[in-house]
């Protein structure tokens, strides 16, 4: 069965520091991969997506993610975080032949001033 | 374009009562999905409509949950009777039809349901 693992429940980084959020997936074929963000009081917003092609994908708000098939990973990165990046981040995989999305349990990001 | 809207934003009901959640998708989006997040766990798929037809309802927890999408526009999710374990945040999402575009799902802000 498909699954997504986000090993870090909560991460705190200093403003201006770099960020990497980890994501591993389990899926039998080439997956469709996503990162979503949920800011306080807001809905889920799609940050970026991978369907095929270049394994390094760029998203909104300065985020990027790299698909590594050999490691079954799709880690999210940002070179310099801003206080407004404090939110909960969800990695997700799309299931082939059924357009439902399977989410990880989320990583809460706090920013230290 | 207007985003996905959900009503109400919060609902507090007692065990055994009935609650109906509403979702208005983005205009022109044939796909409509319901997801929920319970107790800070992962967000889980409930069901998927294509227009007014249920395409996949494999995630519906039991027959206390009834989803409808009359006319292929807005959708309702009714919980009757509500139980304590139904508490959580219910998200609605919509997308266009298509092999790739169906995965580009736009989410609403969610309805926080508390059953006491």
3D architecture notes:
The complex is a heterodimer of chains A (113) and B (116). In chain A, the strands form three sheets. In chain A, strands 2, 5, 6, 10, 11 and 12 form a six-stranded mixed beta sheet that branches. Chain A has strands spanning 3-5, 10-14, 19-21, 24-26, 32-38, 44-50, 56-58, 64-68, 73-78, 87-94, 101-103, 107-112. Helices cover 0% and strands 52% of the residues of chain A. Chain B has 116 residues and is mainly beta. In chain B, a hairpin with a 5-residue loop joins strand 4 (31-37) and strand 5 (43-50). The A-B interface holds A 4, 32, 34, 36, 41-46, 49, 51, 90, 94, 98-106 and B 3-4, 31, 33, 35, 40-45, 48, 56, 59, 91, 93, 95, 100, 102-110.
What is the CA-based Rg of chain B, rounded?
13 Å
Cα(first) to Cα(last) distance of chain A is 41 Å
Overall mean pLDDT of chain A: 92
Low-confidence parts of chain B: none
Q: What is the chain-wise order of helices and strands of chain A?
A: EEEEEEEEEEEE
Give the ordered list of helices and strands of chain B.
EEEEEEEEEEE
How would you classify the helix and strand content of chain A by structural class?
Answer: mainly beta
Radius of gyration of chain A, rounded?
A: 13 Å
The two chains with the largest interface, and their residue counts, are: A-B, 23 and 27 residues
What's the end-to-end separation of chain B, in Å?
37 Å
What is the number of strand segments of chain A? 12
């Amino acid at each position: 069965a498909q699954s997504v693992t986000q090993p870090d429940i909560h991460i705190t980084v200093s403003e201006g520091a770099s960020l990497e959020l980890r994501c591993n997936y389990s899926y039998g074929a080439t997956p469709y991969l996503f990162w979503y963000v949920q800011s306080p009081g807001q809905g889920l917003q799609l940050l970026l997506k991978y369907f095929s092609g270049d394994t390094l994908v760029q998203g909104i708000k300065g985020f990027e993610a790299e698909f590594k098939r050999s490691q079954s990973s799709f880690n999210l990165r940002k070179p310099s975080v801003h206080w407004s990046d404090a939110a909960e981040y969800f990695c997700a995989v799309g299931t082939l032949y059924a357009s439902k999305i399977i989410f990880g349990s989320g990583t809460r990001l706090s920013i230290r001033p | 374009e207007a985003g996905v809207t959900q009503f109400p934003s919060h609902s507090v009901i007692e065990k055994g009562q009935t609650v109906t959640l509403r979702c208005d998708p983005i205009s022109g989006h044939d796909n409509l999905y319901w997801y929920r997040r319970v107790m800070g766990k992962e967000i889980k798929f409930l069901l998927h409509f294509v227009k007014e037809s249920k395409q996949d309802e494999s995630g519906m927890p039991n027959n206390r949950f009834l989803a409808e999408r009359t006319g292929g526009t807005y959708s309702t999710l009714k919980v009757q009777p509500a139980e304590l374990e139904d508490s959580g945040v219910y998200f609605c999402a919509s997308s266009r039809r298509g092999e790739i575009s169906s995965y580009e799902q736009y989410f609403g802000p969610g309805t926080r349901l508390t059953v006491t």
